[in-house]
Design brief:
700 residues; binds ligand C2E; 8-stranded mixed beta barrel; TIM Barrel; 5-stranded mixed sheet; alpha/beta; binds calcium ion; Alpha-Beta Plaits
Length: 700
C-alpha cells in the first residue's frame, strides 16, 4: 500500500492561507453587515469569490503538499468543480451571517450546508486525482473529518456573525478567530487526507491528461494570495470610506438638529415658536380625533408689558419675558406646550381630561403672573389676559383655533384685563369687522380719506367766535362718514394714530393759516391729541414743524389733551407740556372732571385752559350735584388763572347758566355743529352778517 508524505513548508503555507482566508471572510462579513441594498449583494458575490478561492487554495496547496511514491496529476474539470463548490459554500455562509438575526436552528442548518460544502470540495478535489483503483476511506477518520467540517463551520458562522459589528478591538478578535478557524479548516483537510487509503498498485488516472503538479503550487499560492489581499484591501478601504461618510453625515445631522432648534424656537426664551406651535396643534388635533379627547388653546397676552419696556428699557423687558416664560413653564407638565409667538404673546396648548378643567388652569396662570416679578432688583407688577379656544368646538384648523383664542384674548382685555375669556362665535364677527377696519385704516391714510370738521368756540359774554376745534372724520368707502369713536381706538392700538395725528396737526394748521389770512388772526385752532401721541418722542417736533410750515404763531394753536392723559405718568407729561408751553403753544385740559387730578399737580401744569366735560353740562339743569361740580371747577380754574371752556352746550338754559357761572367760552351744538371748513365759514359769515344787520338796525 503506497504511503503518502508531505512537504512541510507547503503544509505550513496551506495553514497560513486558511487563516488568511478566514480573516478575509470575517472582515467581509462585517462589511456586508453595514453595506446597504445593492452594495450588500455585490459584497456577497465578490466575497464569495475571494473566500471560496482562499479556502479552495488552502485545500489545493494541501493536496500539492501531499506526495505518493507515484506520479500525481489533477483532472481539470473535477478540480474546477471543487473550486465552484468552495465558492458556493462561501457565498452561502456570507449571506447567512449578513442576516439581521441568526437563531440557533438557522446556525445549525447553515453549519450543515457549509460543512457539506467544505467536505464536498475536499472529497471532490481528492476525486480529481482519478486514482485507479479508487481511493478507499477509513470510515472513522472520514466521519471525524466531516464532524470537524461541521463544527468548524458552525464556529465560523457564529464568530463571523458576532464579530460583524465595528467595535474597538474587532480586528484583533477577528485575527484570533481567523487563526482558530484556519487551524480547524486545515485540521479537517488533513484528517480527511489521513482517511484516504490508497490500494497497492494504484495509479493516478489524471497524470498526462490533467494538471501537472510541478510549479502548480506557486501559481495557486500567488493567485489565491492576490485574490485574498485584493478582497481584504478593498474591504478595509471601503470600510474606511464608509466610516468617513458616516462621520460626515453624523456632523451634518448634528448641524441639522441645531438649525431645526433655531428655526423652531424663540431665541429669547428658548420656547417653541409659532412654527413649532402650529405643528403641535396639528398633532393635538389628530390626537383628540383619535382618542375622542379635547384640548384648550390659550392665547396669553401680558397687560402692562409695554410701559415696563418703555420705562426700564428693552434689556429689562427681555429679562421680564424670560421670567414670565420660566414661571409659566414651571407650571406646565410635559404633555402641554408653551410657545412664544410675539413680543409679549404666549400660547399654551393644554391637553384636557375634561373640558371643565380649562377655567381652573387659565385662572391659575392669571394668578401666577399677577404676582410681582423681581427683575434686576426691581419689583415689577404686570398681569395677563388669556383667551381660550377649545378643540373640538372652536375651530377646525390650527389657524382658526389660534385666531379664535386671540379674539377671546382681546375680549378678556376689554373686560378689564388680568383675567380670561372663552371664545364665543359672536366675538368673531366683531373681530373680523375690526380686522377689516384696521386694514381700511391703513389705506385711509394713503388714499386721503380723512378730513377735518370744525366746531366753533364762542366767547361766553360777547358771543363772538374765538376759534374752532378740529374734529377728525373718515370718509370710509363702504361705511360712509365715520366719527372718531369708531376708529381712534383702533388707530391707537395699531400705532397708526401717530401718522394720522401728524396729518391732523398739519391740516388744522393749514386751515388756520387760511383763516389767519382772511383776518381771523386772533382765533385759535384746537387740535386733540391722543395719549399715544403725547407719549411719542416726535410730538414736539411735529408741532413745531406744522407751525413753521404754515407760518403760524405758536399761540394760534391749542392742544387738547384729556385730563387722564395728562395725569397719567405725571412727570413725563410735565416734561412734554413744558416743552410745548415754552414754544408758546396753548394747552387745554380736555374732559375735565372725569379724571382724578390732584390740585397740587394741576397747579404745576403749564396749562392755559380747562374744558369742563360734556357730561356735567348735560345734566346741569336736572342734577344739583353737577351744578355744584361745575361751579367748583369754574372757581378752581379762576383761582389758578386758567380759562374755562364749557363744551356740549345744547340749550339756552345751559348757555346762560354756564355764562353766569363764569365760563369764558362755550362750544356746543346750540352754537354750532362740527362742519367742513367751507360750511363752517359760511355759517360764521352768516352770523356776522346777521350781527351787522342787527347793529345797523339798532343804529337806525
Ligand atoms: P372731544 O375732544 O370731547 O370732542 C368733542 C366731541 O363732542 C365731538 O365729537 C363733538 O362733535 C361733540 N360735541 C360737540 N358739541 C356737542 C354737543 O352739544 N352735544 C353733544 N352730545 N356732543 C357735542 P366727535 O367729533 O365725535 O369726537 C369725539 C372724540 O374723538 C373727541 O372728543 C376727541 O376725544 C376725539 N377726537 C376727535 N378728533 C380727534 C383727533 O383729531 N385726534 C384725536 N386724537 N382725537 C380726536
Ligand atoms: Ca377736544
Ligand atoms: Ca371733551
Amino acid at each position: 500500500m503506497p504511503i503518502g508524505s508531505y512537504t512541510p513548508s507547503l503544509v505550513l503555507i496551506s495553514i497560513l492561507v486558511a487563516m488568511l482566508a478566514s480573516y478575509t471572510a470575517l472582515d467581509l462579513a462585517g462589511r456586508i453587515a453595514t453595506a446597504k441594498g445593492q452594495g450588500a449583494y455585490l459584497w456577497i458575490g465578490g466575497g464569495a469569490l475571494a473566500m471560496g478561492i482562499g479556502i479552495w487554495s488552502m485545500h489545493f496547496i494541501g493536496m500539492l503538499a501531499f506526495h505518493l511514491p507515484i506520479e500525481l496529476g489533477f483532472d481539470l474539470p473535477i478540480t474546477l468543480l471543487s473550486l465552484l463548490i468552495a465558492i458556493l459554500a462561501s457565498g452561502f455562509a456570507l449571506w447567512l451571517v449578513s442576516q439581521p438575526q441568526l437563531p440557533m436552528l438557522q446556525l445549525g442548518f447553515g453549519a450543515l450546508i457549509m460543512g457539506a460544502g467544505i467536505s464536498g470540495m475536499h472529497y471532490c478535489g481528492m476525486a480529481a486525482l482519478r486514482m485507479q483503483p479508487a481511493i478507499e476511506y477509513d470510515p472513522i477518520r472520514l466521519a471525524l473529518s466531516l464532524l470537524i467540517a461541521f463544527s468548524a463551520s458552525a464556529a465560523a458562522l457564529w464568530v463571523a456573525f458576532r464579530l460583524r459589528q465595528q467595535t474597538p478591538y474587532v480586528r484583533l478578535f477577528r485575527a484570533g478567530a481567523a487563526v482558530f478557524m484556519g487551524m480547524a479548516i486545515a485540521g479537517m483537510h488533513y484528517t480527511g487526507m489521513s482517511a484516504a487509503v490508497f490500494a497497492d498498485g494504484s495509479f493516478c488516472g489524471a497524470v498526462g491528461t490533467g494538471l501537472a503538479v510541478d510549479g502548480l503550487d506557486k501559481l495557486v499560492l500567488v493567485t489565491s494570495l492576490a485574490v485574498l489581499s485584493i478582497a481584504l484591501l478593498t474591504s478595509i478601504l471601503d470600510a474606511r470610506l464608509e466610516s468617513r461618510t458616516a462621520e460626515l453625515s453624523n456632523s451634518l445631522s448634528v448641524a441639522n438638529r441645531e438649525l431645526t432648534q433655531l428655526a423652531l424656537h424663540d431665541t429669547l426664551t428658548g420656547l417653541p415658536n409659532r412654527m413649532l406651535l402650529a405643528d403641535r396643534i396639528e398633532q393635538a388635533m389628530r390626537n383628540a380625533q383619535e382618542h375622542h379627547g379635547c384640548f384648550a388653546l390659550m392665547f396669553l397676552d401680558l397687560d402692562g408689558f409695554k410701559p415696563v419696556n418703555d420705562a426700564f428699557g428693552h434689556h429689562m423687558g427681555d429679562q421680564l419675558l424670560r421670567e414670565v416664560a420660566l414661571r409659566l413653564r414651571e407650571d406646565m407638565n410635559g404633555l402641554n406646550t408653551l410657545a412664544r409667538i410675539g413680543g409679549d404673546e404666549f400660547v399654551l396648548l393644554v391637553e384636557l381630561a375634561e373640558r371643565d378643567d380649562a377655567p381652573g388652569f387659565a385662572a391659575r396662570q392669571v394668578t401666577l403672573l399677577s404676582q410681582p416679578f423681581i427683575v434686576a432688583q426691581n419689583s415689577v407688577q404686570i398681569s395677563a389676559s388669556i383667551g381660550i379656544a377649545l378643540y373640538p368646538g372652536n375651530g377646525e384648523t390650527q389657524h382658526e383655533l389660534l385666531m379664535n383664542a386671540d379674539v377671546a384674548m382681546y375680549h378678556a382685555k376689554a373686560a378689564g384685563k388680568n383675567g380670561y375669556s372663552f371664545f364665543d362665535a359672536s366675538m368673531n364677527t366683531n373681530a373680523r369687522n375690526l380686522l377689516q377696519l384696521q386694514q381700511d385704516l391703513r389705506n385711509g391714510l394713503k388714499e386721503q380719506q380723512f378730513c377735518l370738521y370744525y366746531q366753533p368756540k364762542f366767547d361766553a359774554i360777547t358771543g363772538q367766535p374765538i376759534g374752532a376745534e378740529a374734529l377728525l372724520r373718515w370718509h370710509h368707502p363702504q361705511h360712509g362718514l365715520l366719527l372718531p369713536d369708531r376708529f381712534i381706538g383702533l388707530a391707537e392700538k395699531t400705532g397708526l394714530i401717530i401718522p394720522i395725528g401728524d396729518w391732523v396737526l398739519n391740516e388744522a394748521c393749514r386751515q388756520m393759516r387760511v383763516w389767519f389770512e382772511l383776518g381771523y388772526s386772533h382765533w385759535r385752532m384746537a387740535v386733540n391729541l391722543s395719549a399715544l401721541q403725547f407719549g411719542h418722542d416726535g410730538l414736539v417736533g411735529s408741532v413745531a414743524s406744522a407751525l413753521a410750515m404754515h407760518q403760524l404763531p405758536a399761540n394760534s394753536l391749542t392742544l387738547e389733551i384729556t385730563e387722564t392723559t395728562a395725569m397719567n405718568d405725571a412727570d413725563a407729561s410735565m416734561t412734554v407740556l413744558r416743552q410745548l408751553a415754552d414754544m408758546g403753544v396753548d394747552l387745554s385740559i380736555d374732559d375735565f372732571g372725569t379724571g382724578y387730578s390732584s390740585l397740587m399737580y394741576l397747579k404745576r401744569l403749564p396749562a392755559n385752559e380747562i374744558k369742563i366735560d360734556r357730561g356735567f353740562v348735560r345734566d346741569l339743569e336736572h342734577d344739583s350735584d353737577d351744578a355744584a361740580i361745575v361751579s367748583a371747577i369754574v372757581a378752581l380754574g379762576q383761582a389758578l388763572g386758567l380759562r374755562i371752556v364749557a363744551e356740549g352746550v345744547e340749550t339756552d338754559k345751559q348757555q346762560s347758566f354756564l355764562t353766569e357761572l363764569g365760563c369764558d367760552s362755550l362750544q356746543g351744538f346750540l352754537l354750532g355743529h362740527p362742519l367742513p371748513a367751507e360750511k363752517f365759514m359760511a355759517d360764521i359769515s352768516a352770523a356776522e352778517g346777521k350781527a351787522r344787520a342787527q347793529t345797523d338796525a339798532s343804529k337806525v
